[in-house]
Write a structure and sequence with these properties.
Largest sheet: 7 strands, parallel
Strand order of the largest sheet: 3-2-4-1-5-6-7
Low-confidence stretches: 222-227
CATH architecture: 3-Layer(aba) Sandwich
Number of strands: 7
Distance between the termini: 44 Å
Mean pLDDT: 91
Number of helices: 9
CATH superfamily: P-loop containing nucleotide triphosphate hydrolases
Number of domains: 1
CATH class: Alpha Beta
Shape: globular
Structural class: alpha/beta
């Protein structure tokens, strides 16, 4: 009896995407454009955090935003209303972006015209973590109401993080969220720094922007610091 040949399509797809992502990073390096991938669940405050960051970084950097959603244009409008360039990406039901989608989106916005492009990935803690978008760094945002146990429940998302933000700390007194326990849970998955922020009040945003500036400087200095 002949042995059945089994092809793991998911591994093949991911391997092909990883290779394409590395190629995309090289293309962006040639343009001196830094690409940041922001991931979180819906409602964690991705857009409001990005806007807070841009209010600081946008003073000295040319920045643009890619807003990825299944449908709608609410987030792109919010970014544009704040005075920054943005395009809305409709995934047509897909729950993530991959490297090829990123390349097409970056071409559409004209990435060569920017120092920084921020991708607000589709909101969930599962699919986006599986696909390398070609970004230089991944920022994961969790909000206080979601609970401090999420690194245990969604390990891959936090393993892929280069930095982790806990947003809505101004609401912490109303929730059973243990900051020390959260940091311990994150440390089980990654050595990435953890920033406690409030996009509503601006608390902690300066430190987060300082981290991003350091990553951009390191990348342009020829040391991309990627995993």
């Amino acid at each position: 009896m002949k042995k059945i040949k089994i092809l793991d399509l998911k591994k093949t797809i991911l391997a092909d995407n990883d290779a394409d992502a590395e190629k995309l990073r090289a293309e962006l390096d040639a343009e001196n454009t830094f690409y940041l991938n922001v991931m979180s669940s819906p409602g964690s405050g991705k857009t409001s955090t990005i806007l807070r960051m841009l209010s600081i970084l946008g003073q000295n950097l040319r920045a643009g935003v890619l807003e990825a959603d299944i449908d709608g244009d609410t987030d792109a409008r919010a970014v544009m209303d704040a005075g920054f360039d943005a395009i809305q990406l409709h995934t047509g039901g897909m729950c993530h972006l991959d490297a090829d989608m990123s390349r097409n989106s970056l071409k559409a916005i004209g990435s060569e015209n920017y120092d920084l492009i921020i991708l607000e990935n589709v909101g969930n803690l599962v699919c986006p973590a599986e696909f390398d978008t070609g970004a230089h760094k991944n920022l994961v945002i969790l909000s206080v109401p979601e609970g401090d146990d999420k690194p245990l429940k969604y390990p891959l998302m936090f393993e892929k993080a280069d930095a982790v933000c806990v947003n809505k700390i101004d609401a912490m007194p109303a929730f059973d969220f243990d900051a020390a326990r959260f940091k311990q849970n994150v440390a089980l998955r990654t050595a990435a720094p953890v920033f406690f922020i409030s996009a509503a009040t601006g608390e902690g945003i300066d430190a987060l922007c300082g981290w991003l500036r350091a990553q951009m400087k390191q990348s342009k200095g020829g040391e991309n610091g990627r995993d």
